[in-house]
Design a protein that fits this description.
Structural class: alpha/beta
Oligomer: single chain
Order of helices and strands: HHHEEEEEHEEEEHEHEEEHHHHEHEH
Number of strands: 15
């Protein structure tokens, strides 16, 4: 197997160089003067910042033949050479792990899924290692080194320590996953909460590019929220910032697994919806797909459950808008399969509960396949490589 350059370090050794690179990565290709304008640096400072990055092959510069001005030469644009380095991202779910191999621009080259026989940390670690080895083998045909591994896990994750403090879906407490995975794979490892990882991908490569303040709300097995405030993904002092799934929207509502009543997740999470549809219809339902089928068939009780879920989600999003005033809220997650059943309720509840100009927040949906969660994990690995100690 081709060895990876694990000791390679990114040549942007100043904050300015890191800022220039991330701007070109997420918003490029750009002329140098435009880079200078966007990062607030002088053209001379940008030239100084890009020189080592070009010499190391991370940035390239050339004429844009398609944007030839009326007179003179074509404009020179600076862009990232995506093929300069590769990264691996892994998303751990309750019953499988999903892995992707991406380039430096977080474009997926290969995606692989591996079932999990059980959720014990030792078993999951062995499966992650096996999947990483498969993806490394896929990278054998490339001359680019694999420079990092990102792992995304639901729950309370301490990225700085690389530890999963508590994951309800996996039943884990205080698992030093980054340390263990680094030992078994030989790669630098970043471990983060799955929703925050997805938020990093949206910030650098998706619907959040160029925005200073936005939120990602995920709908599915749980209700999650990633926050970007003043250009930085935030985790809060205790790593649980953005937990709108446990915002109470109905004090008399159903009991949540967190111990409170009427949380958004207790009304709109996948398990909650299945339970409520069972209660409303008396039907035996094996999973969320069956509940969705009943609602689509027009069964009144089932449709009412989805309507209440939409209202709860809308109120949760309004709470985010009222507290932080984001420019945009991006709704994603596997639960969007039912979006047609609760889109109107989300919007109506959001408008009703949002205060003043917070109601002007751009609320949009961005359906993503499960591979994109693994891509989010790869994005955190790319971020860690570029900025080893990102401010959260």
């Amino acid at each position: 197997m081709r060895p990876t350059s694990r000791a390679e370090t990114f040549p942007a050794n100043t904050p300015a160089a890191s800022q220039v690179f991330t701007t070109v990565l997420s918003q490029g290709p750009l002329p140098r003067l435009e880079v200078a304008r966007r990062v607030g640096l002088s053209p001379a400072a940008v030239t100084k910042a890009v020189r080592p990055l070009i010499e190391a092959g991370y940035l390239v510069e050339g004429a844009d033949e398609e944007a030839r001005p009326a007179l003179g030469r074509p404009a020179n644009l600076v862009r990232v050479d995506g093929g300069r380095a590769l990264f691996i991202g892994v998303k751990v779910t309750g019953d499988e792990i999903i892995g992707v191999l991406t380039d430096l621009c977080c474009r997926i080259r290969v995606a692989r899924h591996l079932p999990l026989p059980d959720r014990e940390p030792k078993t999951v670690l062995a499966s992650i290692t096996e999947l990483v080895q498969r993806l490394l083998a896929e990278a054998d045909g490339s001359t680019a080194p694999v420079l990092g591994l990102g792992i995304a896990v639901s729950g309370d994750v301490d990225r700085g320590e690389g530890a999963v403090r508590y994951s309800p879906f996996l039943g884990w407490r205080d698992v030093p996953l980054a340390e263990l995975a680094a030992m078994t794979t030989g790669l630098p490892v970043t471990v983060d909460n799955d929703v925050r990882a997805l938020t990093v991908a949206e910030q650098w490569f998706g619907a959040g590019v160029g925005l200073s303040d936005f939120a990602v709300v995920t709908v599915g097995a749980g209700i999650g929220c990633g926050l970007v405030v003043h250009g930085r993904v935030v985790a809060g002092a205790h790593g649980v910032a953005g937990e709108i799934g446990h915002v109470t929207v109905d004090p008399a509502g159903p009991l949540c697994h967190c111990g409170n009543r009427g949380c958004v997740e207790a009304i709109a999470g996948e398990a909650a919806i299945v339970r409520q549809v069972r209660e409303a219809t008396g039907a035996e339902l094996p999973d969320a797909a069956a509940a969705l089928h009943l609602a689509r068939e027009g069964v009144a009780g089932a449709r009412d459950v989805y309507a209440r879920a939409g209202e709860a989600i809308g109120r949760g999003i309004a709470t985010v808008a009222n507290l932080l005033g984001p420019e945009r809220v991006i709704i994603s997650g596997e639960g969007l399969a039912a979006y047609d059943l609760f889109a109107e309720q989300i919007r109506d509840a959001f408008v009703a509960a949002a205060f003043g100009s917070a109601a002007q927040c751009d609320v949009r949906t961005h359906p993503l396949p499960f591979d994109e969660w693994a891509r989010g994990a790869a994005a955190t690995a790319i971020q860690s490589f570029i900025t080893p100690h990102p401010s959260r």
